[in-house]
Amino acid sequence: MEQKIKIEQFLDCAGKITQLPSKHKTKLAVLEYLAEKFELDCMYSERQINEICDQWHTFRDFFLLRRELFDNRFLSLE
User: Fold this and answer.
1) Closest Cα partner for 35 from 5, 73, 77, 2?
2) pLDDT tens digit string along 11-36?
3) Residue ranges covered by each domain of the chain
4) Contact between residue 13 and residue 7 where contact means Cβ atoms under 8 Å apart
């Protein structure tokens, strides 16, 4: 049975990401949480991706989140 990684300490009371964890497995869990904010099989513009990322974090670095989503294959270019 796979244990679910807890990410609550990286979220505020509104569910926004407050920081990106340094531990790889926890970072992936936070990125998966953010990736769930996107619709499957939907094409997004860079601007739309930035806007969604910006809505779901508090540390003002949607560039980092966007890059991490792509680098870890939660989003892809078509």
Assistant:
1) 73
2) 999 999 999 999 999 999 999 999 99
3) 42-78
4) no
